[in-house]
UniProtKB/TrEMBL annotation:
Protein's organism: Rubrobacter radiotolerans (Arthrobacter radiotolerans)
Protein name: Amidases related to nicotinamidase
SUPFAM superfamilies cross-referenced by the UniProt entry: Isochorismatase-like hydrolases
UniProt KW keywords: Hydrolase, Plasmid
Transmembrane segments: none
InterPro entries from the UniProt entry: Isochorismatase-like_dom (IPR000868), Isochorismatase-like_hydrls (IPR050272), Isochorismatase-like_sf (IPR036380)
Ranges of residues in domain Isochorismatase-like: 60-258
Keyword Manganese in record: no
Example GO molecular function: hydrolase activity
Nucleus keyword on record: no
Amino acid sequence: MAHHSRIYAKTPDGGVQLASNADRWYVYEDYVHLTPHHTEGQLLKFDAELKPFVDNANRCALVITDMQNDFCSPGGWTDASGLDYKGCREAIPGIQRAIEAARGFGMWVVWVYWHNRRDLRNLGAPTLYSFKHDPHQRGIGEDLENGPVLLEDSWGAAFVDELAPLEEEEDIHIEKVRMSGFYGTHLDQVLRTQGINTLFFTGVNTDQCVTTTMEDAYFHDYNAILLEDATSTSSPGYCKDAVVFNAKNCWGFSTTTEKFAAAEPFEG
């Protein structure tokens, strides 16, 4: 059997191989190499927990989740529901930093966001109930002062003012109708056709749409990294704490925008 096909094979330089062929990682005492099979281009070493990791910037993308008025702006759905929309806004400065760093590294930027049909026939009762627990609560598609909640082309579904100018024509845009950015969308196909294997996650809510998209990325064998200070939530603090714990202990890695921007060239 070829060396690169042997799971848990010893690497020539003292590491251990996880998986095989094009999916393999090399795990060392002090870092993890996510792309030992794809070293042309710009290799970067990122400081993270539980360990630093090395990857090729050409294979990476920044994912921005649900930075929309209905979640993050005064007068939006979160605000009208009596939840902490200001808590959601805490992600904005981190996302601004992350976008600048990602573009500097030549990474893709992926915008993932709710865009529901006006007839709401894309939504089943379980999803609708997640956001309307009693008859008086405003649910998806119902009218607020600034228009309907999270419908395509509505004010509530538009990106917040601080981030909208940072979009670029060549960015990837993924409309979704569930919490996960993978369910019922073209996200997986677009990422694979563009050769993207590693995703840095940002946005809101950390414990809902961010975490479900990150988990699905992990289930699809993408390399998943949470940028802690570029995500936020209107939920209690322990909800985000649980996501950070699982990000670095189960689904991949966790780091900050400062460490993300400070990634250094790697020569190994």
